[in-house]
């Protein structure tokens, strides 16, 4: 069944998001914030609200719900979208709300030994996906949405399409993953052939491409490298097809793997990407190269990994060492 909302306003939001080709995750987040904004204002229509109501809502999120800076910004973005793109009202005023302070966070990074321990706890598809997160510095959704055509075995490269900021980039493909990926794709192709035989086999494609190449959605190159285990109904078109694997599947597997190693670090799927960047720099890679591999717009974002190296065991020597070297009575 095609996804629709009972509220005319929320349905208008859904259509505006669909026209702009935003992801279903963006739709879900924006709809949630708009709903909360409406309920916060005692179910008043947003047309009856203005700057003060927006400011009060954003302030309430920080003061009473204690949300993070990124969460508050997401709520603001949802309301800006509502007023500008759906209600066609200007949203040019400055929001004078209590703003959540953005903390300076040092990313969690695993050592190579710790990465190896976590990978040893993973099996089959989950192992391969985690190895790609670490070996190529992929974000979770970049890995999940990877298409067959975007893996170049000859050049040892992976093309990431429409990554964060809707940018494409080329990342390294480690030699050790070539054979596992080839074997994995053989099984995926068998599953795809079976789907085609049963009258399915189509995959989601961007709307413009689906019109330009109407039969390409069943071609092998456009299939997901990590397809879902079962067919499902597309919530927008109502078409039955095989989508990519749910990201939560890998997240749960990695959490369990980290727990089984006994590691105390709060490592997640994204920690593999942080570790990839840090270990590249440790091996002497130029920071601009690392920036390109990660797809960072600003090199300052990449420099956080140099700070980790400079402040850790490789960059700072504790003064306690001098005391130990001068006196044996400390032990």
Automatic annotation (TrEMBL):
<protein>
    <submittedName>
        <fullName>Integron integrase</fullName>
    </submittedName>
</protein>
<dbReference type="InterPro" id="IPR011946">
    <property type="entry name" value="Integrase_integron-type"/>
</dbReference>
<keyword id="KW-0963">Cytoplasm</keyword>
<feature type="domain" description="Core-binding (CB)">
    <location>
        <begin position="4"/>
        <end position="87"/>
    </location>
</feature>
<comment type="subunit">
    <text>Forms a cyclic heterotetrameric complex composed of two molecules of XerC and two molecules of XerD.</text>
</comment>
<dbReference type="GO" id="GO:0003677">
    <property type="term" value="F:DNA binding"/>
</dbReference>
<dbReference type="InterPro" id="IPR004107">
    <property type="entry name" value="Integrase_SAM-like_N"/>
</dbReference>
<dbReference type="Pfam" id="PF00589">
    <property type="entry name" value="Phage_integrase"/>
</dbReference>
<dbReference type="InterPro" id="IPR013762">
    <property type="entry name" value="Integrase-like_cat_sf"/>
</dbReference>
<dbReference type="InterPro" id="IPR044068">
    <property type="entry name" value="CB"/>
</dbReference>
<dbReference type="InterPro" id="IPR011010">
    <property type="entry name" value="DNA_brk_join_enz"/>
</dbReference>
<keyword id="KW-0229">DNA integration</keyword>
<comment type="function">
    <text>Site-specific tyrosine recombinase, which acts by catalyzing the cutting and rejoining of the recombining DNA molecules. The XerC-XerD complex is essential to convert dimers of the bacterial chromosome into monomers to permit their segregation at cell division. It also contributes to the segregational stability of plasmids.</text>
</comment>
<keyword id="KW-0233">DNA recombination</keyword>
<comment type="similarity">
    <text>Belongs to the 'phage' integrase family.</text>
</comment>
<dbReference type="Pfam" id="PF13495">
    <property type="entry name" value="Phage_int_SAM_4"/>
</dbReference>
<dbReference type="GO" id="GO:0015074">
    <property type="term" value="P:DNA integration"/>
</dbReference>
<dbReference type="InterPro" id="IPR010998">
    <property type="entry name" value="Integrase_recombinase_N"/>
</dbReference>
<dbReference type="GO" id="GO:0006310">
    <property type="term" value="P:DNA recombination"/>
</dbReference>
<keyword id="KW-0238">DNA-binding</keyword>
<dbReference type="InterPro" id="IPR050090">
    <property type="entry name" value="Tyrosine_recombinase_XerCD"/>
</dbReference>
<dbReference type="InterPro" id="IPR002104">
    <property type="entry name" value="Integrase_catalytic"/>
</dbReference>
<feature type="domain" description="Tyr recombinase">
    <location>
        <begin position="105"/>
        <end position="318"/>
    </location>
</feature>
<dbReference type="GO" id="GO:0005737">
    <property type="term" value="C:cytoplasm"/>
</dbReference>
